[in-house]
Write a structure and sequence with these properties.
262 residues; alpha/beta; binds nicotinamide-adenine-dinucleotide; globular; 7-stranded parallel beta sheet; 16% strand; 7 strands; 39% helix; single chain
Length: 262
């Protein structure tokens, strides 16, 4: 029996088997959790149905987090199957391509700013607000963030602003729901080649730089992130909330340059 036995968790953001959310689902399932999934876009329904089946789940829900009505519907629909549940993973991010390439100011428009913040930051506390009536005591909420929230990472640009907001929301949300026994955390993952990441200009270069400079001399995997996520979602992490946990091979503690200088 794993440390998530008896827990019912909603996982958002599985788009491929390279998605960070897929790694999280794998680890949570291995620890005994029951899973439900949300995705966006009717055209992905068959694919997500198959992914859910990999995890013995038939619970999949189409939800565009850019729409409050769809967020509300997600949780009312879920409650028809699970009257209450134990938490969710927010593994969702989006910014228009020109907002994550080149000079920050070239890609900066009011519209790009709004979209990046709406989908990547607002959606996390908005989902928490809608889920609240259905969350059990000791529920745990988790989101995914990136070092570009606090450091200048080439090309991350407007997404860095959105992630900074997301990280602040982890703290304020933790305070808002903490008295109900609910915990809120973020994982700051190192770069991983996923569909979302491939939208960031020169992402391949970033992967190399980070692998070279990280104390563990490699990039992290969705399994590395998944295992930490499973822990944070479990009662083992009962004393951990309002935190950003780094799963980045130690890169955030370096100067960002390779240590193996000739
Ligand atoms: P991914 O492309 O596999 O997942 C991104 C998900 O966001 C997709 O499932 C997509 O459908 C979903 N999404 C986008 N717009 C949406 C909307 N309007 N409504 C609902 N869902 C929407 O990529 P990923 O790298 O696994 O990204 C997951 C999270 O991890 C993101 O928040 C990303 O910023 C974060 N992250 C990624 C990395 C990385 O290097 N890959 C590093 C740190 C943090």
């Amino acid at each position: 029996m794993g440390f998530l036995a008896g827990k019912k968790l909603l996982i958002t953001g599985v788009l491929s088997n390279r998605s960070i959310a897929y790694g999280i689902a794998k680890a949570c399932k291995a620890q005994g959790a029951e899973l439900a999934f949300s995705y966006v876009g009717e055209r992905f329904k068959d694919r997500i149905t198959e992914f859910a089946a990999d995890f013995d789940s038939k619970l999949i829900f189409d939800c565009d987090v850019g729409d409050d009505a769809q967020i509300a519907k997600l949780f009312t629909d879920l409650s028809a199957h699970w009257p209450t549940f134990d938490g969710f993973v927010h593994s969702i991010g989006f910014a228009p391509r020109e907002a994550i390439a080149g000079n920050f100011l070239d890609g900066l428009t009011r519209e790009n700013f709004k979209i990046a913040h709406d989908i990547s930051a607002y959606s996390f506390p908005a989902m928490a607000k809608a889920a609240l009536p259905y969350l059990n005591d000791k529920a745990a909420l988790l989101t995914l963030t990136y070092l570009g929230a606090e450091r200048i990472i080439p090309n991350y640009n407007t997404m860095g602003l959105a992630k900074a907001s997301l990280e602040a929301s982890v703290r304020y949300l933790a305070e808002a729901v903490g008295p109900k026994g609910i915990r809120v955390n973020g994982i700051s993952a190192g770069p991983i080649k996923t569909l979302a990441a491939s939208g960031i200009k020169d992402f391949g270069k970033l992967l190399h730089t980070v692998a070279d400079a990280s104390p563990i001399r490699r990039n992290v995997t969705i399994e590395d992130v998944g295992n930490v996520a499973a822990f944070l979602l479990s009662d083992l992490a009962g004393g951990v909330t309002a935190e950003i946990t780094y799963v980045d091979g130690g890169y955030s503690q370096t100067m960002g340059v390779t240590t193996d200088l000739a």
